[in-house]
Design a protein that fits this description.
It is found in: Cell projection, Cilium. Pfam families: NPHP3 (PF25022), NPHP3_hel (PF24884), NPHP3_N (PF24883), TPR_12 (PF13424), TPR_NPHP3 (PF24885). A 5-stranded parallel β-sheet has the order 4-3-5-6-7, with helices on both faces. It has a 5-stranded parallel β-sheet with strand order 9-10-11-8-12, sandwiched between helices. It is 60% helix and 6% strand. By secondary structure, the chain is mainly alpha-helical. The longest helix has 126 residues.
């Protein structure tokens, strides 16, 4: 193959495009092909041909030399050409490098210019926004000042005119009185505040004249601020009457008692048993139509209860099956929150039994509703009439609410639903009040929690309370715990410093039971000691999370010292700061602080999270923890230890004998010996094993011999639990029931915290309530399951383990049951109904199933995350996102994008309110995560929505301003934060008043901000004001709440010792009504005051003076609610009783006269008010003498009353003469009502334009405890 030169013709010139900028022309020689003959001859082999010439061979060599020379020249030319090309490329590369450097320099210059312009733009925008903000603030302040000045000017002008007119009238009246010889006392001549009275002109509205003898004592407003001694409604306006339990209680006594009162756990029947509204339905075949229709309506009740954090359950046993569930029915009636009886024409024995238990034996235990379906002629059959008479005879307190109906079944069911809804809202869940005020009250109640950084789950707290109460209700007298209690007392009393005390023992040895009983005894013996306890549940449950435990203990500790502000939400900081809080607050506590943590070894990574136990404790702090002896960490084994030994043979025999006696059984001597020989090893003589063994022997349904034989084959608690499961399976009647039992227990095992009864009915549609109730009853009898906070849970860890081994094959089958629960909670999620149960269970189940995609989707449901965050499950929410693999920034972006998508679907006002709450929750969550830059946007958006959808002065706007200011504090932008805090403070003061707890929180935040700016003087002023407000509100809420619990406990003890009807019980009812009245809980106060009145009428008689006291208190309550007709009737009845029973000058009689006169005057019944004013004057004359200043005040008030009768008294002089001449006749109150007087009382003058200067008026004084923000 030739070279490239063979492709061109001889003599052709080509250009070289690679060398230099221009090509160089060069002539390439043409290749000359050698002759084929010569080539062939040169390579020919064989003998030399004769006659060949030597010259021909030489010529060939010459030709090759020429060829070589030619190729060499060609190569040299090619090399030169390529060198030229390389030189040219190097020059071009150098030129491009220079161009690149120049362009890079220009680009850097442009970037600097861009950054400079961008900064200038941001500065200009910031200046613009600040200018606009200042302008808006200026305009707002200017308009506000204009309005205030206008109102101030008009008010002062009117006051000046009124004062000038009153001055002229007073001068004229003074001259007339002096001419008649009547002496006028000056304000300095009196030793009583009652004489500080102001005179108004004749004919003006005289509501100011509630001063003096009729209104000069402390008002109800001042009572609600607790400025006076604590008295009930009867003593709220008078210092003369010293009745009641709180007359001599000083403020120091209240402060000293707060710690013990707030931890009172009175064992009184609660309205809700285990967080469930249980509606027990008693029905006959005649009312089955109403019952079926009501069950359809009850879904609305269930949704309402679940939205408030409670469960709802219809409890109903059909007539045909009621006889077989007698014991279960009795238990359900005791647990029920409300009982409903539906009657028409017939009754059965089961209905009579249920009515006897619910309506006759315990009519005061729970609300009762009686639905009576009558015919058109209103005739009742004999059995119905007899039953109604029994119910009516037992209902001494009028607790039964009767629904009498004669129309269709649909309307009857609707009436039952309406009545139940009212009972649930007002009496059971405590959301009483009118519908118009419901939103306001909800905002008022939730304000403190929303503003603070501490969010807490009440379900966790209720679970702990129920765990403690269930342990306290167990019998321990047969377990020999007294020796351990004495040793606990000795170890706690040891001189400090003392390390934590370790209570150890095997599983089921009774550690939780011992600690509960010890706490109960210590609370009675040491009321000044503060007890903080926590019972840890099974592993992986919420109660075993270390952050939840430490946070709960910290909050409980801080609640006893007025405030819980300053507590961090960061999980690591919560664990780190607890020892500091404990040391700081223990120095302020007068007594000891004892912390008890049961089953501490069940806490996740207990040794790492509870390392504060190793540090030295404060002098007055003691810590008691219980552990399993097998799982106790090595570092804790050096602490002082109280080990629970196995039960002795005598204690074993006592436990078994007690169970047999309760079941009316008796063991033979041989059976006793078998039990004694069996219960000798460590595994067969612990408390749980012996208790379970005794229950299985007596309640198995088998013969005693067979039960004993089966149980004695089990050598440990776990095998005994497995036998109990098999025993209950055999006890069930059908395979369907056995299948449901297995499935339900597996679901409880696979869930996070348990399954509720209503959820079990949803998961098993074929399961009827009687079967479920009976199953739970039998499982509870053998200590397998219990109900705690409305959830079905395992009572002991060994029961949980037995279910895992018996039904789940060691736990391998949990995935299918978790899928079933996930499907159930996803259905609720698809209906946009997120309850605390969905938020607790669904993310945890998805995490256990290792489904990260669905877990992230569930977390991005904004209401799920909001529910978790607002209930304080901050660390749990973070753990889910960490498991998904998202960092903080990406998580914030995901939430914000999800909110943007949700915002597009929000159109209604309610939707916008929810959207604002979601934005605020996201902002607070990001702020707690330490992402203030990303928290600003959602908080600002929440503020914008609330200002637009609600009102710029709405309290929710103040909440947004408060949260936004907190972000600026983190940014150290103190100027912006101060302005936002001040705006929030102004809104809160306008909405709630200057002495509300919300105002105190704003003041604390502002004081903390000033302290960071080293403005200590301003911070101290605000902090002192905040402390005063908190002390005042704490006395209203905390102290009164503690005394209410104490009085309810006293009431229970009195009922047990004296019987339900006694004068002491009636007095306690009255005092409870007083306390609830002082807390502004008027509905609860009415219930107790009514019960007090009815009991006193039954025990003491209707004319006893104590009945007059109850009537007075009820009248004061009805006056507060503006139910004047009822109040007037009660005051009149009280006055009649006291006139007959008391002396004419008795102070209690003066009290009733005074307030009835005020009520008459308020309603415009002046002709009835005059004799009572006169009677009050007469009592004062007899009590203090005719020349006492208070008598003069009463005279002036009586004159003012005549001033209001301006239509007949035209001439003031005639009025004075008339009043003077009639004075002697007016002092005879008995003759006054019979006289005919031509006096026409004017209409009620209505509210006065301002507060009374000399006294107080109940109608026009604002009640700070019930003030709500303007709608």
């Amino acid at each position: 193959m030739g070279t490239a030169s063979s492709l061109v013709s001889p003599g052709e010139v080509i250009e070289d495009g690679y060398g230099g900028e221009r090509g160089e022309a060069c002539e390439i020689p043409v290749e000359v092909k050698p002759k084929a003959r010569l080539l062939r001859s040169s390579f020919r082999r064989g003998p030399r041909v004769i006659g060949a010439s030597f010259k021909s061979t030489g010529s060939v060599d010459l030709e090759y030399a020429a060829e070589y020379e030619r190729l060499r020249k060609e190569y040299e030319i090619f090399r030169v050409s390529k060198n030229n090309e390389i030189t040219s490329m190097q020059k071009k590369e150098a030129k491009l490098d220079e161009e690149n450097k120049r362009l890079r320099a220009e680009l850097q210059a442009l970037q600097k210019t861009y950054q400079k312009i961008l900064r200038e733009k941001e500065a200009a925008l910031e200046a613009k926004y600040q200018a606009m903000e200042r302008a808006a603030t200026f305009e707002h302040d200017r308009d506000k000042v204009k309005r205030q000045f206008k109102i101030f000017r008009e008010t002062k002008e009117k006051e000046i005119q009124d004062l000038l007119r009153a001055k002229r009238d007073l001068e004229a009246k003074l001259q007339q009185l002096q001419t008649q010889g009547i002496h006028i006392f000056g304000p300095n001549d009196s030793d009583s505040d009652d004489n500080q009275t102001t005179v108004t002109a004749v004919g003006t509205q005289c509501e100011y004249w509630t001063g003096g003898v009729l209104g000069s004592e402390p008002s109800m407003g001042s009572m609600m601020q607790l400025q006076q001694t604590f008295r009930g409604p009867e003593f709220a306006h008078s210092l003369i009457d010293v009745e009641g339990p709180f007359a001599n209680v000083s403020r120091d006594d209240w402060d000293a008692a707060v710690a013990s009162l707030l931890q009172v756990s009175a064992h009184v029947p609660q309205a809700l048993w285990s967080n469930t509204v249980r509606c027990y339905l008693i029905s006959t075949q005649d009312t089955k139509a109403e019952l079926d229709i009501f069950k359809k309506h009850s879904s609305v009740l269930r949704r309402m209860c679940e939205s408030l954090g409670h469960f709802y359950l219809n409890v109903y046993f059909p007539e045909e099956d009621a006889a077989s569930y007698a014991t279960v029915r009795k238990q359900e009636i005791e647990r029920s929150s409300v009982c409903v009886l539906l009657l028409k024409s017939t009754v059965t024995s089961s209905v009579v039994e249920d009515c006897e238990e619910a309506f006759v034996k315990n009519p005061d235990g729970h609300p009762l509703v009686l639905y009576l379906r009558t015919e058109e002629d209103n005739s009742l059959t004999g059995p119905i009439r007899q039953l109604l008479e029994r119910v009516n005879g037992a209902d001494q307190a009028a607790k039964v609410k009767v629904v009498d109906h004669s129309s269709s079944a649909e309307e009857g069911a609707k009436l039952i639903y309406t009545q139940l809804e009212k009972i649930i809202k007002q009496e059971l869940l405590g959301s009483e009040g009118a519908d118009d005020d419901s939103k306001d009250s909800a905002i008022d109640e939730g304000r403190e929690e929303d503003l603070g950084d501490v969010l807490w789950d009440l379900h966790d707290e209720q679970e702990q309370i129920e765990s403690y109460q269930q342990a306290c209700s167990s019998t321990t007298s047969h377990l020999g715990f007294q020796k351990y209690i004495d040793r606990l007392n000795d170890m706690i009393a040891a001189p400090p410093p003392t390390p934590p005390l370790l209570v150890s023992g095997g599983p089921g040895s009774g550690k939780s039971l011992l600690l509960s009983k010890w706490i109960e005894l210590q609370q009675k013996q040491s009321p000044s000691t503060l007890f903080l306890y926590h019972f840890v549940g099974r592993p992986l449950s919420i109660s075993s999370e270390p952050v939840v435990i430490i946070k709960r203990l910290t909050v409980k500790l801080l609640q006893h010292f007025w405030s819980i502000s300053g507590l961090s939400m960061d999980p690591s900081k919560i664990l780190e700061e607890f020892p500091r809080w404990l040391e700081r607050l223990s120095a302020r506590h007068q007594g000891n602080i004892i912390i008890i943590i049961d089953s501490i070894d069940q806490i996740q990574q207990a040794e790492r999270h509870m390392k504060w136990l190793i540090d030295p404790l404060p002098v007055n702090v003691r810590v008691v923890v219980s552990v399993n002896v097998e799982t106790c960490p090595e570092a804790w084994r050096l602490w002082p230890t109280l080990h629970l030994d196995p039960l002795s043979p005598r204690e074993v025999k006592n436990v078994v004998s007690a169970e047999c006696q309760a079941a009316d059984l008796r063991l033979t001597k041989d059976q006793d010996k078998k039990l004694e020989r069996h219960c000798r090893s460590a595994s067969t003589c612990n408390a749980l094993y012996v208790t379970l063994l005794a229950r299985m022997i007596t309640r198995s349904g088998w013969s005693l011999e067979k039960s004993l034989e089966q149980c004695l084959q089990c050598q440990d608690t776990l095998s005994l639990y497995r036998l109990a499961l098999k025993m209950i399976l055999k006890f069930l009647n059908t395979d369907r029931e056995r299948h449901i039992m297995k499935e339900m227990l597996c679901l409880v095992f696979s869930s996070h915290n348990g399954v509720s009864e209503s959820e079990a009915l949803d998961l098993f549609p074929e399961l009827e309530w009687p079967a479920l109730s009976s199953l739970l009853y039998h499982l509870n009898r053998v200590c397998i399951v219990t109900l705690r906070c409305g959830l079905i849970r395992f009572e002991h860890m060994q029961a949980c383990e037995a279910v895992r081994l018996e039904f789940l094959g060691g736990g391998s089958g949990c995935a299918s049951y978790r899928d079933k629960l996930i499907h159930y909670f996803n259905q609720q999620l698809s209906q946009d109904f997120v309850t605390w149960r969905v938020a607790d269970e669904l993310p945890w189940l998805l995490q256990q199933q290792e489904d990260k995609t669905k877990l992230q989707l569930s977390l991005l449901n904004l209401f799920v995350s909001q529910n978790l965050y607002k209930r304080g499950h901050f660390s749990e929410l973070l753990a889910y996102w960490q498991y998904v693999g998202k960092d903080k920034s990406s998580m914030a972006t995901e939430y914000f994008d999800s909110l943007k998508r949700y915002e597009k679907s929000c159109e209604s006002e309610d939707g916008m309110t929810k959207l604002a709450n979601l934005y605020e929750t996201l902002g607070r969550f990001l702020k707690d995560l330490g992402l203030p830059s990303q928290a600003v946007a959602p908080l600002q958006r929440s503020l914008e929505i609330r200002e637009t959808a609600l009102d710029p002065d709405h309290p929710s706007v103040a909440r947004s301003l408060h949260q936004l200011a907190g972000v600026y504090v983190q940014w150290k932008k103190y100027g912006n934060a101060e302005q936002l805090y001040k705006q929030a403070l102004e809104i809160s003061e306008n909405a709630y008043g200057a002495e509300h707890v919300t105002v105190a929180q704003e003041l604390e935040s502002l004081a903390m901000l000033y302290q960071k700016q080293n403005k200590y003087e301003q911070a101290e002023k605000l902090r002192k004001r905040s402390v005063r407000i908190r002390q005042k509100t704490a006395r209203q809420k905390g102290h009164m709440y503690g005394f209410t619990l104490l009085r309810r406990k006293a009431l229970q003890l009195e009922e047990l010792t004296l019987g339900k009807d006694s004068a002491d019980c009636a007095k306690t009812f009255n005092e409870l009504g007083v306390l609830y009245y002082l807390q502004n809980n008027l509905d609860a106060a009415k219930v107790f005051l009514t019960r007090s009145l009815e009991m006193r009428q039954r025990v003491l008689g209707p004319d006893h003076p104590d009945c007059a006291q109850s009537l007075n208190n009820l009248a004061a309550l009805h006056t507060e609610r503006r139910e004047y007709e009822t109040a007037e009737d009660m005051y009149e009845r009280a006055l009649e009783i006291r006139r007959k029973a008391l002396s004419p000058d008795h102070p209690s009689l003066a009290y009733t006269v005074k307030h009835l006169a005020m009520l008459y005057k308020r309603r415009g019944k002046l002709e009835k008010a005059v004799p009572l004013y006169v009677l009050s004057l007469e009592i004062r004359e007899k009590s203090f003498g005719p020349k006492h200043p208070s008598v003069a005040t009463a005279l002036v008030n009586l004159a003012v009353l005549y001033c209001q009768l301006v239509r007949l008294i035209i001439n003031p002089s005639v009025y004075i003469v008339h009043s003077s001449s009639a004075y002697s006749a007016l002092l005879k109150p008995k003759a006054f009502p019979g006289q005919q007087r031509d006096i026409v009382p004017p209409a009620c003058p209505g509210p006065s334009p301002g507060p009374p200067p000399g006294g107080t008026c109940l109608e026009h004084l604002p009640r700070k405890a019930s003030r709500k923000h303007p709608v």
